[in-house]
Fold:
Amino acid sequence: MRAPRRSRAAALTAVPGLVLVLVLTACGGTAGDAAATGAAPSAAGPAETTATATPAAEGPIGAGCDVLPAEGPGSLPALATTPAGTAVSTNPQLTTLAQAVLAANLVDVVNTRADITVLAPTNAAFDALGADAVPALIADVPRLTTVLTHHVLSGRLAPEELAGEHRTLQGDTVTVTGSGGSFGVAADQTLAGVAPATVVCGNVPTANATVYLVDQVLAPAG
Structure:
């Protein structure tokens, strides 16, 4: 004679593992998936923070940019639509450079070059050469041309691209060091050869160039 059939409830009670499987299946398998991957289920929390790249600098950098007028000639909106050779003449810190560019007949050259970077020596940079040195330099057009074209680099260089060795319009190279908002050129690459050149105002856009004002005149190779 066969033994009495156990009830369905009794059978499930006798097999606790089966009950657990049925419960997990009814819950969509979430806990099972976590167990399969070795990860324990947890309450939702804030998303993990991931490292991000340093944002690119926007707008001018350097304390020397404070002299730029808010509007009119020489202001950022005006410079953005003015070719570099002409833009130089509208900056009060670059009057000696404007005179030198005109004497070397380089205004059109700098104005028509597409996508360049200009390391523009300020009035203080020329003053560092000495009172007699500037008139002599401006009078020597071949030498002046060599010096000025050494300050023109290929490509529009943003601050994050400025550090490194760059080829100049003169055909030689200049090496810029630094990062963030602080950049310079070693003293042995300057015409005075006494102090390093420092970028006092940079990342200034013109119609065809990005301009960085430096407080020393740079020396071309040789």
Q: What stands out?
A: Residues 1-56 have pLDDT under 50 and may be disordered. The chain is about 35% helix and 20% strand. Residues 100 and 138 are 6 Å apart (CA to CA). The radius of gyration is 34 Å.
